[in-house]
Write a structure and sequence with these properties.
Layout (H helix, E strand, L loop, with lengths): L17 E8 L2 E9 L9 H12 L8 E5 L3 H13 L2 E6 L5 H9 L3 E4 L8 H16 L2 E2 L7 H15 L6 E5 L4 H12 L5 E6 L38 E4 L2 H13 L7 H14 L7 E6 L10 H5 L5 H16 L2 E2 L3 H8 L1
Parallel strand pairs: 2-10, 3-4, 3-6, 4-5, 7-8, 7-10, 8-9
Antiparallel strand pairs: 1-2, 1-11
Helix pairs in contact: 1-2, 1-5, 2-3, 5-6, 7-8, 7-10
The chain binds pyridoxal-5'-phosphate.
Length: 346
């Protein structure tokens, strides 16, 4: 039975925790906080986007029977689970790089998963948008079009960023450039609500999300949701956020280290974001407080880590990266509020 949308979000989405760390670098002590979006009900920051886009695309009083959209995985997973609960039929068009976790979750929620193969010269992202649009036209389902709809960045401007900046001031905020929804939403939030915060986008080498990666032999991207072969529809923003590149090799090296060192179980793009922040902090000349938006959790990558991700890189490059990153990550210490420090000292 098709149904209309409840006005307020009926799911446990939002109010995700901020996990705080301190780190000493070059004689300075910095605070680095992780906004852990894996604690949303369907496990990622894309829960917010899926709910917001769906809720605002529906015309008031008009039932929605079926929707379709393109996704690298997390958004499709969230949309499928939301559709299952609301009685809406969902189709997700993804790419061969979708994780097993997300593919199984989409199918398990009773949604249809279509894998779009890219044509010569076409990015994976553009291929899934093309196929989703074609199917929507043929079948008459509602195409949510998250990669072009301004509702995507608006969900972050109104929700994720508003929630995050209620936690106080940050000198810098790091997000994955990815397909640009979070990046644009945070840029719009900061333009509308001036804060003394630099927005920094983290992207792998070879990604063209917000900035042309240059000519030459570009590495082939293989981590879902980290980087994009297509320029983001949302990249036309002023002032232009800076882009910091962190290699996929470093991300994979740090993934194992996070587990070894008992650091939070965040996903691969989030690890890239944290490494970008640490790199930025290494150049700081005064103590800083920074925040990293961590899109999802390690549960989406763990099962395929050895079979799918590790074989993409040279073992000696991995070992070199581990040796370089281990001392840095080992210095991350859990933040202890001053009040607790006093009571311990007493
Ligand atoms: C792993 C991961 N990180 C980050 C993002 C950020 O997405 P967006 O391009 O919407 O900001 C996504 C989106 O799908 C993702 O799957």
């Amino acid at each position: 039975m098709p149904r209309t949308f409840p006005k307020n979000c009926p799911f446990q989405i939002g109010n995700t925790p901020l996990t705080r760390f301190v780190i000493r670098m070059n004689g300075l002590e910095h605070e680095i906080d992780l906004k852990e979006e894996r604690y949303n009900e369907f496990g990622s920051v894309k829960d917010r986007v899926a709910w917001y886009v769906l809720n605002n695309s529906a015309k008031p009083g008009e039932p929605v029977e079926s929707v379709i959209d393109a996704s690298s995985g997390n958004y499709g997973y969230a949309l499928s689970r939301i559709g299952e609960r609301l009685g809406i039929s969902v189709s997700v068009v993804s790419s061969p790089s979708i994780s097993e976790f997300n593919a199984a979750g989409i199918r398990g929620a009773g949604a249809r998963l279509i894998i779009a193969e890219a044509r010569d010269g076409e990015s994976a992202n553009a291929a899934r948008m093309r196929v989703a649009g074609e199917i929507a036209t043929t079948e008459g389902s509602l195409f949510l079009d998250q990669y072009r709809s301004l509702l995507n960045p608006a969900s972050h401007q109104e929700w994720t960023a508003t929630e995050l900046f209620s936690e106080g001031e940050f000198n810098a905020c790091f997000v994955a450039a990815s397909s640009g929804g979070t990046a644009r939403g945070f840029a719009d939030f900061l333009a509308a609500n001036p804060h003394p915060t630099e927005l920094v986008l983290v992207d792998p080498y070879g990604s063209r999300s917000f900035e042309d990666p240059g000519a030459g032999d570009l590495p082939k991207l293989f981590i879902p949701g980290y980087g994009s072969g297509r320029a983001s529809s949302f990249s036309n923003v002023s002032p232009k956020p800076s882009v910091r590149r962190v290699s996929e090799t470093d991300v994979l090296a740090a993934f194992g280290l996070f587990e070894q060192l008992g650091l939070p179980g965040i996903g691969l793009s989030s690890i890239g974001v944290v490494l970008g922040a640490l790199d930025w902090l290494a150049e700081a000349t005064e103590p800083q407080r920074v925040v990293c938006v961590c899109a999802d959790g390690d549960d989406r990558y763990r099962d395929e880590f050895e079979s799918r991700y590790l074989p993409k890189i040279e073992p000696h490059e991995l070992q070199t990266a581990i040796a370089r990153l281990k001392p840095v990550l080992s210095d991350l210490q859990t933040f202890t509020p001053l009040s607790d420090q006093v009571s311990v000292a007493q």
